[in-house]
Structure formats: structure tokens, C-alpha cells
Amino acid sequence: MPDKKIRFDDFHLDYGRFQLYHRDVPVRLEGLPLQLLMFLVEKRGQLVTREQISSELWSSKDVFVDVEQGINTAIRKIRRALADDADEPQYLQTVVGRGYRFVAPSAEEDDGGQTPTEKFVVSPEELGRAIMTAAGLDPENPRGTPEARAKDPAKSGN
To answer: pTM of the entire structure?
Structure first.
């Protein structure tokens, strides 16, 4: 997941850099709210309960934290970073008494802009011919010796 990037509207979430960007400009968002945003994005479209958030972000039982207040604060910071409105959410929907749902309609994984059809593909036969040609061999007569090619100008291309 380190290279994973999710785009939604003018934002992109870079998991490897642990950074949210708006129009390619870093958005200031503290660690815990950013972790929560990543968690919600991973579960996009699904209801994420406050209990799930609590166990994901505050898994240590040894530390006392006001989890309810922590979740509320983190949600508020995410909304501020995304310029989202709780009453008319574009990204983060509150399901009253239950939890939250990431609802950006166009959230998708960013593959760096290269689709599989744009990748350069060479068949094994083409690669073999290219290597043989680069080595000075005739792909049509690979066993032919350089001396034989020198004597027969038609085969050497001279």
C-alpha cells in the first residue's frame, strides 16, 4: 500500500507520503485525522461505526483517551481540510448515532496516469530479433558466420 494514491475531486491522498493534497498542494492535516481519513476512504461507501474507528485508531488498551471527543475532533479537522459541510456533505457523511461514510462519488485509485494499454510491450520474438541485430547477427540466419556475411553482400546488407 505504500505507493497507493486515491483521487477524489481536486484532492489526492498519498498513502506512501502520508499526505493529503489539494490540486497538488499539500494540505495540513495532523496524523490522527489523516489516519482516520485513510481508513474511511478504504471503506468508501460503507458505514464505519464509531466502534470500528475506535479500535482502528486507539487499539492500545493501556492508554486512556476520550475516544468520543477524539473522533469528533478528528472528523471536524478532516471536514475543515476538505472544506466539507456536515449538513450537505460532499465527502464525509454522518450517520447519526452510528458512524460515518466516505461518499465522494469519484474516488478511485490513481495508477500514475498510465493505463495498461499505454505500457510498452515487446514479444519474445521481437526482443530476440533486436538482440541478434544489435549483436551483428542476421536474425534470418543466426548460425551464419561473419565471414560468410562478408563474402555475400546480399546477406550483409552492403
So the answer is: 0.65
